[in-house]
Amino acid sequence: MFPPGRGRTHAVLRSVWDQLCSVWRDLLGRTPLRSHDEETPIAAGLHIALVFNGGSGGSPAARELTEALEAYGAKVATHPFDELEQIDLGRAQRIVVAAGDGGVGPCAELAERAGIPLALIPSGTANDFAGFLEVPDDREAAVRLAVDPEAHTRTVDLCRAGDRPFLNAAACGMSVAASENATPLKETLGATAYAVGAIQASVSEEACTYRVVVDGETVFDGPAWQVIVSGTGAFGAGSRIEPASEDDGQLDVTVLDDGPRSALPLRAWGLKRGGLTEQDGVLSFRGRTVDVHGAERWNVDGEQVDEESPCAFTLDGRIDVVAP
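The structure corresponding to this sequence follows.
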C-alpha cells in the first residue's frame, strides 16, 4: 500500500511517462531498447566509434544514425570514412561501421589494431558481409544489435590484397568487368545490377592468362575466366564461394578455367546456389599465402582496385564481429 496520496501521484507520473514514450515512438519510429528493469538503457556507458560512409548507396545521414545509437544509451563519437587513418578511438569499446562491403574491410583493420569488436549497419548495395553474418537489413534491428553489449560475436579472418584489407573476396578477370558494368545501374536496379553486369561481362569478355602460386607452389598456369581469392567467400549480391570458411586461417582460391563460354551460366548458378567448386573446369586450392600473376585490376569486396602483378594475398590477424 502507498501512503495517502502517493499511489495517485505514482499513477499520474506513470501515465505521463507512458505518454512521453508514445510521443518518442511516433517521432522517431523506434522503441528504446532497455534492460530488464526498464529503467537503464541497455547500452548505457558503451563508448562507440561510428564510422560513416556517406558515399554508400543506402547510407543514412550521420546525425540520424548517431542519434539512433545514442537513444540506447551509447556514447558515440562519429567519424567520416575518408578520415579513417586519422581516427583517434579514444575510449571506444566498439567500432560501428555504416558502409557498403568496400568500406567494411578498412574498418575491420582498425578494429583489429585496437583489439575491439566491429559492428555493422548495412548501408551499401549488396551488403554481402552483413548478409553472410545474418546481420538484419532492417536499420532499427541492426542498430539494436550494434549497441547490445551482450551480443554474440563471430571471429573472422582479416585478409589483405597487397596493402588493401578485405573480408569477403577479391577477384580478377570477368568479375572486374561485371562490377564495372553494374556500377551505373546500382541506383536504379539495386543488388540486381550485379546480375545484369555479370551477364554483360559473360558476353563481352575474354579469358586471360594467369599464374597462381599458393604457399610457394605454382598450382595453376594458363588461361582462365577469373581467379577468386576468398576470406568468407561472400561474393556478388548473395553468391558465395564454397567451402570457404571465415575463421580457418586459410585463403581459398577458386580458378574458373577457360572452358566454353556456354558454361558460364552454369558457373553463375553454382555461385548463387552452391556447388561451384564441384563443377568440371573449376579448380580449388587453399593456403596461407597466394600470389596471382597476370592481373593488375581487381574487384576487392566490390571496390575496383589496381594492384601491381603479382598481387600478394595474405592473412593479417582476426577480428570479432557482432552478429545475431
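The CA atoms of residues 49 and 95 lie 5 Å apart.
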